[in-house]
Specification:
about 525 residues, alpha+beta, Heat Shock Protein 90, four-stranded antiparallel β-sheet, 12 helices, 15 strands, about 25% strand, rod-shaped
Length: about 525
């Protein structure tokens, strides 16, 4: 059962850890995708703004004042079957526009527009090595002049990118815009947790950052390049986002299933632990019952043997002729029979107290009276061992609700233990006292005492410090169990203080009337 529980717990822990790691990986992947998307959107937005503004300007300036070819590229294609060579010329036509910015001041400004130019020239292979064949001659044969598609031309992008790189980052990007884009992307990826962001330029923080962003932000940090310059792989600018409550968010995503798993696992542990505890307790009870039966058998064996011997003696003719001897043996039989009856009654009394639902009869009783009655029952036994019992009645109010017979038997049981469990002549002290609401009495002896383990179990039924068939101490493990039961029925409390070799003290408290 324990191995199974450990295996179940191990599997559940492994599953929860795996689920946690999977959620963290999913979270990190979603964040990186979101950052890359935001970076692309910001760059496209900036390029779109430039191109839109530039096209509006071109549409308003009219025909060019000057034009020339720049950046001409030449491609050659050989056709061996026809002995011809084709030249494909591709270039950029630069057109200059002179704009009057302010007619009053006479200021002028140049605006350039670019158009793509395509031409094709077919030459005979015999003339291909003609050194006089120069590139401008092929360009003069224009086949088409078209307006540039600004979204597809690297030339525009490179020009705008070079220009943008000279502008401070806080003028190229608005904090509110960046935050809005991040929130929308994170929402689309179901990342609904608090975050902070900032832009870094070569590792140094810029002005573009969220209100609460700090250099040493709590939580994991994710980054993505932004405003990558044309022709370069990396960018000096990094968009950095941190999630101070990432662990809490990831945990919340698995808490429902993980919580149910933990509850079921705890339930299994509790049920199994209870079962194991009950098994152990039943084993202890079984051992104590076996010990009780062994001791009870021994206790009955001695008086039965004594009775048999007495009966054999009475059967002898010589004994029958001596009345005094007969009387002696009859008295012995009566005492042994009474002893067995007392033992049986003590067992039955405990059983009746545990099974009976009817409460015992209570009346106003005097504690001092009960103590005196108990002392009379054990006085001769104490004197036979050369011991004594001293009393100290300091309680002025000794009345309480209880059953006199049971209280007397309770005290007798405690006194009997003090006498039996003493290697020296027993010295017993009984004292009473009062508090505002309780009547207290203590019984202190100089016996062998008890260790902590015995003190823990001494009030349990059938428990005896000696286990197995050991009979150096008379008893069945029922006396203190009976005492505890009677104290509970009277709504009282009992405390035990003991040191091995120094004696034991019982303190019992009953509520006053």
């Amino acid at each position: 059962m324990i191995i199974s529980i450990v295996a179940i717990i191990s599997v559940q822990v492994y599953w929860i850890i795996s689920a946690w790691e999977d959620k963290e990986e999913e979270f990190s992947l979603a964040v990186r995708q979101s950052l890359n998307s935001v970076s692309v959107m910001i760059e496209e937005r900036e390029m779109s703004d430039y191109i839109t503004a530039f096209e509006k300007l071109l549409d308003s300036v009219g025909t060019p004042n000057d034009s020339n070819f720049t950046d001409v590229f030449l491609f050659m294609d050989d056709d061996m079957t026809s002995n011809l060579t084709s030249f494909y010329a591709y270039g950029i036509l630069e057109e200059n526009y002179i704009l009057n910015i302010d007619t009053k001041l006479g200021e002028e400004s140049n605006v350039k527009d670019y158009k793509k130019v395509k031409t094709t020239t077919v030459l005979n292979n015999d003339k291909i090595f003609n050194r006089e064949n120069k590139l401008p001659s092929s360009i003069d044969k224009l086949r088409s002049v078209e307006r540039i598609n600004t979204y597809d031309q690297v030339k525009y992008r490179a020009a705008f990118s070079d220009y943008s790189s000279t502008i401070p980052i806080h003028r190229r990007l608005n904090v509110q815009e960046l935050q809005t884009l991040l929130e929308e992307e994170f929402k689309d990826k179901n990342i609904l947790t608090y975050f902070e962001f900032g832009i870094y330029n070569n590792g140094l923080a810029t002005k573009v950052k969220s209100n609460n962003y700090k250099e040493e932000q709590k939580g994991p940090r994710y980054e993505a390049s932004i405003f990558t310059e044309d022709g370069k792989i990396d960018s000096p600018y990094k968009l950095v986002v941190s999630f101070p409550e990432k662990n809490k968010f990831v945990f919340s995503s698995i808490i429902s299933v993980a919580g149910l798993s933990i509850l079921l696992t705890l339930f299994i542990i509790i049920v199994s632990a209870t079962a194991i505890y009950q098994i152990i307790q039943q084993k202890k009870v079984s051992e104590m019952k076996s010990d009780f039966i062994n001791n009870m058998s021994h206790e009955f064996k001695t008086p039965i043997a004594t009775i048999n011997l007495a009966l054999d003696a009475i059967s002898n003719a010589k004994i029958l002729s001596t009345p005094s001897k007969v009387k002696q043996y009859v008295q012995m039989i009566r005492e042994e029979n009474k002893r067995m009856l007392t033992q049986v009654e003590s067992v039955l009394l405990i059983s009746r107290l545990e099974k009976s639902s009817a409460p015992i009869a209570f009346s106003d009783i005097d504690l001092n009276e009960a103590i005196h009655n108990a002392i009379r029952h054990v006085d001769l036994l104490v004197k036979s061992k050369k011991g004594f019992i001293s009393t100290s009645f300091e309680a002025s109010d000794t009345l309480f609700k209880g059953n006199l017979n049971h209280i007397t038997n309770l005290i007798i049981n405690l006194l009997d233990n003090s006498i039996k469990y003493s290697d020296n002549p027993p010295k017993i002290r009984i004292a009473t006292s009062n508090t505002n609401k309780h009547l207290i009495f203590t019984i202190e002896d100089n016996g062998i005492g008890m260790n902590l383990t015995t003190q823990k179990f001494v009030f349990e039924k059938f428990y005896r410090e000696q286990s197995g068939n050991i009979h150096n101490i008379k008893g069945h493990g029922l006396g203190l169990s009976y005492v505890k039961k009677i104290v509970d029925l009277h709504n009282g409390t009992i405390d035990l203080f003991s040191n091995v070799g120094k004696g034991t003290t019982f303190t019992i408290s009953f509520p006053k009337i």
